[in-house]
Specification:
Layout lengths: L1 H28 L3 E4 L3 H12 L4 E4 L27 H9 L13 H13 L2 H4 L2 E2 L3 E7 L15 E7 L2 E7 L1 E4 L18 H5 L4 E3 L9 H4 L2 E6 L3 H11 L5 E6 L18 H15 L3 E4 L2 E9 L2 E8 L2 E8 L1 E4 L28 H4 L14 H4 L6 E3 L13 H15 L3 H5 L27
Parallel strand pairs: 1-2, 1-7, 2-3, 7-16, 8-15, 9-10, 9-15, 10-11
Antiparallel strand pairs: 4-5, 5-6, 12-13, 13-14
Helix pairs in contact: 2-12, 8-9
């Protein structure tokens, strides 16, 4: 009789736990999926979530969608419209009377936002779920710290969001981090270290591609300007500066062994617009309109009476460049993991990309045209239902293409919606993207895939 009573008690106990677990699972499923970042990839996530009937919230730290793109709104992309629009987003827009731009046209950043991202964000099914001026400052698991295992996979995510000085707490059943890397530029320092001297010179250093023909023209007229970086962003910057003619003195600082390594494929490049950049910068250098200093590794910046002094190593010897008025830095960017301290992540030690993705995108081995399509399984993190997608999934690697981010989203959302079969398919079609990286020893892909 005692054994029978013990068995009945055990049944009651286990039954209660099973019911509790089922209840928790049902409660979790009622929560939305949180998408962080309303750029092209984050908005694509919203499109796929709408199509699959999933509840979601879309959080954007800026005051409008594509806020980071607006910082380089004057720059024209290498890839035409047909590779910059997500298929599901296009379907939703077309259903609401939207007319797609010409597929073969190369958009500027401004056009990408105004002709695509903003019309999509204004669709009722997106607008009602979009929260602007909403900065995610931390993500955790409800009631658990990073070290606790028990019930972790069945516990909701908790996002702490700053909105107009007030912190809001939101629960989610899954998180898609599409925040990119634009807001985390690399420093001028060749060792990739931020120094107090560089931070103190922020008023004289621009990180990115300034709108020299627009609102920032006066900043550079009559100045000696050092452009740091050996990729296409730096080339874009120099070409913009050169339009000022003799009113600007341009110094091009790189770490490449020789300037020819920066020209890329020129007429051999399969992306015509990118090849044209190489040809134009080649002509400027040959004409003496740009003074090239390479390889120059900058170790220290100093403010002097004559301007900014750049100290470092040039061709193996100590070197200094004095009298610089302004610095424009195009040395890439890095992901921000500061608000993910309580999330279990698998990040590659070198690229700072999603760890399983690193061998596919390593810029020492791959250009943007040789990265194989990949989806949910590659992007999966130790923290169940947490995903890093888009440019941030590539970490510091510059080999990202927007269309690749759209394929990531298609696969991840399919998985979260329970369509495992669809998540495993590959539905990415890309053109051959030319010769981003010919000589792997002396030439990296250096932002070959971006604007």
């Amino acid at each position: 009789m005692e054994n029978k009573l013990e068995f009945l008690n055990l049944q009651e106990c286990c039954g209660a736990k099973t019911e509790e677990a089922t209840s928790l699972k049902n409660d979790l499923n009622e929560l939305p999926i949180a998408v962080i970042g309303a750029g092209p990839v984050g908005l694509a996530a919203a499109a796929h979530l709408v199509e699959r009937g999933q509840k979601f919230i879309l959080l954007e730290a800026g005051k409008q969608v594509g806020s980071n793109i607006n910082e380089w709104s004057h720059v024209r992309l290498f890839s035409p419209w047909q590779y910059n629009i997500d298929k599901v987003a296009k379907k939703l827009l077309t259903k609401n009377g939207w007319e797609a731009p010409s597929a073969e046209t190369l958009p500027t950043g401004k056009e990408l936002v105004e002709l695509y991202l903003e019309p999509f964000a204004n669709l009722p099914e997106i607008q009602e779920r979009l929260e602007l001026n909403s900065k995610v400052v931390s993500i955790s698991k409800k009631g658990l710290d990073k070290m606790k295992d028990s019930g972790r996979d069945q516990t909701s995510f908790v996002l702490y969001i700053e909105q107009q000085g007030i912190t809001k707490r939101v629960e989610a059943k899954a998180v898609i981090d599409a925040t990119g890397t634009w807001s985390q530029p690399n420093p001028v320092n060749a060792d990739n270290i931020w120094t107090s001297e560089e931070r103190n010179l922020q008023d004289h250093i621009f990180y990115g591609i300034p709108n020299i023909q627009g609102g920032q023209r006066e900043r550079y007229i009559g100045k000696r300007v050092a452009v740091v970086g050996g990729g296409h962003s730096a080339i874009n910057t120099i070409l913009e500066l050169s339009e000022l003619g003799n009113d600007v003195e341009i110094y091009w600082i790189m770490r490449k062994k020789k300037v020819e390594n920066a020209y890329g494929g020129e007429e051999k490049d399969a992306l015509e617009a990118r090849g044209a950049l190489g040809r134009r910068i080649h002509q400027l250098v040959d004409a003496g309109q740009v003074q090239v200093i390479t390889p120059f590794n900058i170790h220290q910046l100093n403010k002097t009476n004559d301007g900014i002094e750049l100290r470092g190593e040039y061709k193996g010897s100590d070197y200094k460049l004095s009298g610089i008025d302004e610095i424009i830095t195009n040395t890439g960017s890095r992901p921000d993991f500061s608000y993910l301290r309580e999330i279990r992540l698998s990040v590659d030690a070198g690229t700072e990309s999603v760890e399983a993705l690193s061998p596919l995108i390593d810029p020492n081995l791959h250009s943007c045209g040789t990265v194989r399509p990949h989806g949910e399984e590659i992007l999966r993190q130790p923290e169940k239902n947490f995903y890093i997608v888009g440019m941030k999934s590539y970490g510091r690697a510059p080999t990202f293409l927007m269309a690749t981010g759209y394929e990531q989203i298609r696969s991840v959302v399919a998985y979260l919606a329970g369509d495992i079969e669809a998540s495993k398919k590959v539905e990415l079609e890309l053109p051959e993207t030319g010769v981003c990286s010919i000589n792997l020893v002396t030439q990296s892909s250096s932002s070959c895939c971006g604007a």
